[in-house]
Amino acid sequence: MADGREVNAFGKLKLGDALLEVLEQEGYSQPTPIQSRLVPVLLASANAVASAQTGSGKTLAFLLPTLHLMNPDGKPVTHHYPRLFILSPTKELAQQIYEVSRPFVQALGFRAVLLQGGGKRAEETKRLEKGADVIIATPQRALEHIEARHLDIKSVKHFVVDEADMMFDMGFVSYLEKLFGVLGERSQKVIVSATITPRVVKLAKTYIKPLRRIELDPPGKIADTITQYLYPVVRSKKEGLLAYLISANHLKRVLVFVRKKELADGVADGLREWGYKVGVLHGERMHLERKKTLLAFREGRIQILVATDIAARGLDIAELEAVINYDIPHVKHDFIHRVGRTGRAGKEGAAMTLVSPDEIEQLADLQKVLGNKIKEIILPEYAPKEVKSRGWLIQAPQRRRRKASVAAAGKEKHSGPLNKKGKKRKTTKRDGFKLHDASKRSASKPRRSRGRK
User: Fold this and answer.
1) N or C, where is the chain less crowded by C-beta within 10 Å?
2) How many CA atoms lie within 13 A of 428 on its CB side?
């Protein structure tokens, strides 16, 4: 092996020679912090719930030790049956785990099968019938095969739930509970995510005993390799600013995030008019189409990928120069996952966020999670007039009360994501401002005399 120091770094984790050889061939030099912490715990056959930054190497952190335990001596495998079951919330993340695991799985003589919605179920069934040691699946498709008796997971020795908090956000908690109920009590259970929420902790304590908890970074922590920028912008000028930032920074590969799939299509069409090669990724695109789009983006045939938060988790795009947030996500922690698509594996990356005046309150809430303010850059051609000299967008909430009340009054005329017809809007500070103003108006009116007629 070429570099003794690098070999010894992974060798200290007490992994088998076959895995160490693949690590060298795949260009993994030394373990990341989450790998150094989690691998020994799982090698000791302990159950665990672990969190670390996006891009920190969590996939290998659970993959390496579980594969080692399945075949510690690297002996030829003659009988194939489900031993490792990895659950992923999205097709894209499941596909990525499958691609990362394949060289390690093959080196130990195992077979891996990918089960995902949008895939051909009949073909998946044939692969399962031939025998598989590693199952990588999305929740609904996994249960479909289990209920059809194509897959028996009672013999599974290692069960991993990846991006557990996203499982809750996508409404998969009932699927998780069913799967935990089917698994044998002696199987090793692992929950991994970039953010461990109270709901995830409750699930873990219910189904995993005893439990080791590993947290490398506090919630809201973003890698130091990522430089963040905030651009105040008039909403109608967002598309122009987006094209300007891509051109001015000479970005060759950029991931643009938007909240809604309809907006993703519109932004993509607008960028194509500027002459860019653009791909779109959201939940309503067919699985095969999404797969082709991701491949084209990875290979550089597409310069810009416009995506909803379906792409915010787990996707590892090599040489991704920048992430641009066209808007602030509904779920604050999704911002962390969005930004984490760049600046991975120690490489430098940039994250640019476009914020219009109607997103001020969302920005304030986001910065509470982040714990620090994002550097603001004002471009007079695109910024709102009130921002050019005052920088309202990055002021603390208590110093923006007058501005916030004005924004709230303006939003009464236009329905936003929090007050659509048929949905209950969350009470905010703006409601307090309205009540305060109403009380002042009533106090200023002259009172009528209550004397007898």
Assistant:
1) C
2) 17
Decide which of 281 and 288 is more confident: 281
∠ CA 299-304-306, nearest 5°, is 120
The 3-state DSSP class for residue 311 equals helix
pLDDT in tens, 402-414: 444 444 444 443 3
Tell me how far apart the alpha carbons of residues 333 and 42 are, in angstroms, rounded to a whole number: 27
pTM of this prediction exceeds 0.85: no
Per DSSP, the three-state class of 86 is strand
How far, in Å, CA of 113 to CA of 322, rounded? 33
Has residue 92 got a pLDDT over 60? yes
Domains of the chain by start residue, with CATH: 4-215 (3.40.50.300), 226-399 (3.40.50.300)
| Identity at 4, one-letter amino acid code | G
| Residues forming a β-bridge with 48 | 190, 212
pLDDT score of 452: 42
Q: Alpha carbon of 145 to those of 102, 148, 189: distances in Å?
A: 22, 5, 21
User: In this structure, are residues 406 and 359 in contact, taking their beta carbons and an 8 Å threshold?
Assistant: no
Q: Tokens representing 293?
A: 């789009």
Strands (E), 1-80: 48-51
Q: State yes or no: pLDDT of 321 exceeds 50.
A: yes
Tallying the residues shown for the chain, one arrives at 453
- Give the separation between CA 165 and CA 364, rounded to whole angstroms: 23
- Bridge partners, residue 255, by sequence: 305, 323
**Under a CB-based contact definition with an 8 Å cutoff, are residues 327 and 354 in contact?**
yes
Chain centre distance of CA 383 = 29
Tokens of 90: 């999205």
Query: Looking at residue 283, what DSSP letter applies?
Result: T
User: What is residue 236's predicted lDDT score, i.e. its pLDDT?
Assistant: 93
With contact defined as beta carbons under 8 Å apart, do 38 and 48 qualify? yes
- pLDDT at residue number 412: 40
Of 69, 60, 134, which Cα lies nearest the Cα of 100?
60
| Cβ-based burial of 136 (10 A; exposed 0-12, middle 13-18, buried ≥19) | buried
CA atoms within 13 A on the CB side of 317: 31
